Structure formats: C-alpha cells, structure tokens
Amino acid sequence: MDDPQVWKTLDDLLMNGHNNVRDFLDALNEHRETLSGPMKSLLFGGMGQLVVAYNEARTELNEPRVAFGIALESMVANPQFAALMLHTINIGIDNKVEELR
Description:
With 101 residues, the protein is mainly alpha-helical. The protein is built from 5 helices and no strands.
C-alpha cells in the first residue's frame, strides 16, 4: 500500500484504460442477454463501475489512493455488484454448512 510505483501504475491503468473499458462494455452490452448474471455483475457493476468512479474521483483532483477508495466504495454500492457478492457469500456459507454435516 505504500509503494508509490504501485499507485502510479494503477493510476495510469485506470486513467488510460477508461476509454478502452467503456468501448469494450458498450460493445459487450449488445450481447448482454448471452451473459450469465454473475458475469454481467462482475463486468458492468464491478469493473465498469470501478473505472468510471475512479476517473470521476481523479477528475475531482483526489490523489490515486483516495480515488481508489472512492471507486471501491462506489463499486461495492452498485446493486449488481452487491447482489453478486451476496450470492457468493451465501454459496460459501452453504458449502461450509454442508462440510459440517
């Protein structure tokens, strides 16, 4: 977390990749019905939300570390992504209960 090179490369990745991610998700959106629910949640509610929120936070002149925190909060608050996480947690709990039987 304290390595400046990590933050610099993450910043470069998310700032410079914004248009590519947007173009990819726009193209993929035409085939949305063929994607599973978890895949849609991960791509659109997860990756897409993270990149958009990060770029908005950086545009507001937040430092990369702060912008990343804002982006993570935004991603976790996204209803699609939150539903995916809840589903994943429930599967994990169900599997653990089965192991204990």
